[in-house]
Every structure is written in C-alpha cells, then in structure tokens.
Amino acid sequence: MSLTFRAVSETRPGPKWAGLFADYRDAYLRWWAREGLTGRPTYMECRRALQTHMPELVPIWEKLCELAGGGDMEARFLSVYCPPRYLTGCSQAIWSGDEPLLVRNYDYNPQAVDAILLKTGWLGRQVIGTSDGLFGLVDGMNDAGLVASLTFGGRRETGEGFGVPLILRYILQTCTTTAQAREVLRRVPCHMSYNVTVLDAQRDFATAYLAPDRPPLITHAAVATNHQERVEWKSHARSTATVERERYLLQRLSLHPETQEKFVSAFLRPPLYSLAFDRGFGTLYTAAYRPWRREVELFWPDVAWRKSFDHFAEDGVTITYPTERIALR
Known about the structure:
The chain is an alpha+beta fold. The protein has a single domain, classed as Penicillin V Acylase, Chain A. It is built from nine helices and 15 strands. It comes from Maliponia aquimaris. Pfam families: AAT. Keywords: Transferase.
C-alpha cells in the first residue's frame, strides 16, 4: 500500500483547510458516528467543554466549523470531545546529548491518517505538526521551540475528556515552555490513557501519563512506549512489544553517548520499527524534532523529508509500505 504525505501551509484557516476537510469529511464523520450518535456529546456539550478547558481555541474552532459547512456533526467532530475509542502503537524518546531532540515512531493504520504535515499561524503562533482530524496533532512543534508528541497508554478505560491530539494542539498554541505545558496536562481531561512527552528549547522535558479515571502523573521520563507505570493491558503489551521497546530505548540512553544520526537510525530498525500493518500499528513514519533549529524531519527507511519554519515547501512524498494486509480503523 502506498501513502502520500503532503506538506500544507496556511497562516489562518481558509480555503486550503476547507479543501482538505472536504476530501476527508465523509470518512471523518463515519468514524465519529460509528458507535451511534447517542453516544457522542451534543453540540452544546462540546462548546461548553471547549469554553471551560480550552477557551483560547474556541475562535479557531468556530472558524473551522464555518469552513467545514457549519453543520452539527462537523462541529461535534471538530471539538474532539469524547470521541470514539482509538488505539495506536508508537515509541518516543529524548536524546541524551546536548542539543534538545525528540524522536518518535508513529505506529498506526495507513488507511486512518491525514498524512498531512500542517504549518499554521493560528492565534499568532506558528505551529508545524502531523495533523489528526485537521485540528489535532499527533506530534508537533511551535515557533518557540516547544515540542509535543503522544503514544497510547495501554489501558482500555474511557471517560469524559478530549481526544489527546487536540490537547497537543492546545499546548502548542498556548505554551512556550515545558513548565507551562505541565500545567495544561494537569488540568485538561483526556478521554483515554495516553502518554504525552514535551520538550522545550532549554532541554526541559516531561512525560505525562494521562488517564480518564485517575489524576495525571507528570514524570521526568525520557522514554514513552505503550504502557504507563506498569503494564495493565497484557495482551496489548504482548502484541505491541511495549516493554521490549521501552527497555531497548532506555538501554540506548544509558549505555554510551551516540550521535543524533545513530539515535534516529535506531528508530528505523526493529524492535522500534514495526511491520505490523496487518494489525493496524505498523510504523508510518519516524519524526525527529530539533527545537534549536526549529526543524522537523520525517524519515522512512529510504527517504528523509525536512521542514522548518523558515523553509517549508508545500510538496509531498509517497511511501510504499510492505504489505497490503491493512486492518480497518
């Protein structure tokens, strides 16, 4: 299966964003309604949740709703409040060298991703990140050099809260330091268990273990895979090799110093690089975020794709994955 990643830049929400949403609209709304509309919050519940927890995003949300056609379903989807369950794999780590660097693998289903690297200037803050639902982000960086990235936390529980990609968007729109991001992660509810790692230009970093049924735990962990303090979903842990990946990364960070290039290249090989596309968590890309350079580079085994705030060409790259046996979202 082939997938084309596109780089799109639009300072304020406008025709480019509207065209992208039109392309994905039917798939987005089918996913949103797959468990029945009675299980999703109403428009007013979504609005109140945003106003309560992320008021700065409300004007952007309203503009995106307008560009999406102004419908009830579109607005509820774009709020990312109490969405359907979704699971990813993913590994991420902070390099132990002097320059701040976060590297991550995004392990998911090629049929269920935006495949868009989006550069925006919403609310006067430039952000580059890998889009999810064209509002949220699964990883990204802002023009202050703050980086945020997510992995699934390895638990089944769901609750009232936001999909974690919108929490990443909110952090990158409103924070400039890891200290500020910690406060957001403590107070904004997340609807499932996820691990969020943040890194700033001063090399301050944190990993938050978010959950819908217990308080967030903010740690100084440099590595996150697909469990939190301990394995709680054993079958998922076995199938994703989350413990093995965590141990491998911790070993690399503790044994001896290595160059950025060697550290990044480790993510392009097993046990970090996953070929489990038939189970919905093959590695779709490796991302390296460099806050000092304000640069992100996406990697595949034979391809590198670099973007920065100063140099962001609107081009694309087509990647062919090694199997046609892809699980549905």
